[in-house]
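Job type: complex structure
Entries:
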Amino acid sequence: MILQGKRVALPPVPVVHRRFEEHVAATPDAVAVHRAGRQLTYAELDAAANRFAHHLAALGHGRGAKVGVCLDYSADLLVAILGTLKAGAAYVPLDPAYPSARLRLLLGQIPGLALIVASPDTAALVESATVPVVDLAELADELAELPATRPDVPVTGDDVCYAVFTSGSTGTPKLTAVRHEGWFNLMEWLRLEYGLHSGSHHLVVSAFGFDLSQRALMTPLFCGATQYLMASRNFDAMLAHRMLKQHEIRVVHCASSTLYLLVDWETARGGDALARLDYLLFGGEPLKPERVLDWARRPGTTCTLLHQYGVAECTDVATSYDLADYRPGDHEVAPVGRPAHNTDIHLLDERSRGVAPGEQGEICISGAGVGAGYLGATGPENEKFTTVVVDGAPRRLYRTGDRGYVTEAGELVVLGRIDAQVKVRGMRIDPTDIERALGRLAGIREAAVVVTHTGAGEAELTAFLVPEGDDAPADDELRARLLETLPRNMVPARFVTVPRIPLSPHGKVDRAALAATAQPAGQADDRNDRDDGEDSDDRRQRARHLVPGVPAR
Amino acid sequence: MIADSVHAIWCREFQRDDIAFDDDFFALGGQSLIMVKIQGAFIEELGVEVTMDELFRSPTVASISAYIESLDAVAP
């Protein structure tokens, strides 16, 4: 089963900063970036980026070099990114919202790291670096001496433009590299498919370390529009709504969980700045449509909501779906739609054979977006980049590890992770299927299901529940209701009420943290024994203290 | 006193009543979803807009209350 994206010719040298430079030539006085009342025009941003590129070139940093960028959202951040690209090098976002210990770990994993751009506000975070840390403001006099014209550096579509860290299910961050051609193809597809233009001003709301933030940062500059940046290191729904009200912002890219917060804010406090955007593009985690559909279906909501799917390894976005087409009765899970231009989705079985239409398989991606792989990888992870033969021709392909199927209408649906599947009493189960079933029950706000083990070492399922009110429905009632929709083996053995589901730094459910809170195996035998002297309140209280939080993003 | 109102909001959003004025938000298991709710409650109940950056910089009932009081002091 192959879902084929439209073939659209790219320029002979699909290099991202060249498109920005075309806008510089066409509209030099247009505003490129706006932050806290300060603006830079396209010409000013270009000149500053050219000077930084000359600076890098003079130090010998060009193709193959990596420039770490540890800055808050600012005009300097765009100068650092564009200057790096113009020098032929690639940038690596170092998110200043990360703790310095985390950044130290990441810094050690960047092959070819040449230098780091930081500011007085962020320099302490990267003081462990063994490469020079520069501050553009401090370099100002030196940079002013350098030419404001473009450096003569040949860059190809196959060169790496950025590399981002992906957390990976093992928790070990991996640095995955994206090529100019892929990034160019992504933004050219968004521009053509959704008609983005020089009035499609953006606001960035996501954390810098995210792959989607790279797209959110560059797309307006790719389209000749203005980039609005918030003077905030942490996501701030209040400030975001203030910016949306004050400026002619038309497009916002974010993680689905961030969308919920933006929608909740507007629903609770009124206003329609979010509802009147041209586009909201979101994804990165399973969508909970109930969190947005009421708002989306209000008459005043004219914004097109694009539910997207992709992986950092293949340049961020691979498919897109207009949520207006979603009828909850048709599919349990909201589809993620059709492929981007020059992108194919393959659904393969365990032996790399295509599955039949409608059947489940591993989602694999081929086409322009397939990245340059993991940098400095020594483990087996690069094997996920492979080659398949389609119609006699070899195609480079990335196995995402995600499980999905294609609907009759030709839309991709993502169901979960292949490696999240667990065997419980001989049956392959994906806990996310159970989470969805729990989430549909009245009285349950959120649910996370993890595999725990009994004292006898037998795998069983434990559901962590966040109730709508003070108390979750009784265990027996939950089981009875789940049995109406799930096979017996998929009904959790235990239910634990928690005040919230712990999230990883990237906002995904932290299953490892939950599993760790489940009772150690030796004590697990009390699961069917309610006479252990512990009432449900004690249980709840204990779970509350045991569930660790993580610093917010 | 503002600190009492802030404390009441924290207790409600954390769903527990044993929070001390100098307990750290993150040590209590706090994360951004709770912070957003606290931020909203400050607007609705205290009439003050506090940015997320400030909430993260002042992660205790005592320190964020002191910050809010400093806002009142400069308000007209």
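Summary: Helices of chain B lie at 2-14, 32-46, 52-57, 61-74. The interface with chain A takes residues 14-16, 26, 28-36, 39-40, 43, 49, 51-53, 56 of chain B (CB under 8 Å).
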